[in-house]
Design a protein that fits this description.
Layout: H1 2-31, H2 49-65, H3 72-98, H4 107-123
Length: 128
Amino acid sequence: MEHIAVVVLAVEVVVMVSARVGTERRHWAHARGRGPAPQPREDLTFVPAALYGIAAAAMAVGALTTSVEPTPAALATVAMFGVLLPAFTANAVLRLCMRGGRRALGPGLRGLAATVAATGGLVSVGLI
């Protein structure tokens, strides 16, 4: 399980970096006069609270089913890798799918983001 968790962590980082690069490219294109103005809340750190909740719930289920000992180090690891990174990654997936567009998020994209957050939260328990 630990190997799978490390692979998922690496994939999360690649997705977040890809979304960040795309966001920066749109900002630079706008600054050079070749693109529309970026959305005001396009930053990857503006994550909807629901994604944090989904990641935390999935992480809690994973921790309960594998009987993780609640030490301070384990709780800090779970908070970082089980809640923050999956929620940031789910938001990055939304940003990548929208490509800076102003269209509304459909249920399919919201479901994809929720799946990413839940999967990241659940698998992160393998890092403990």
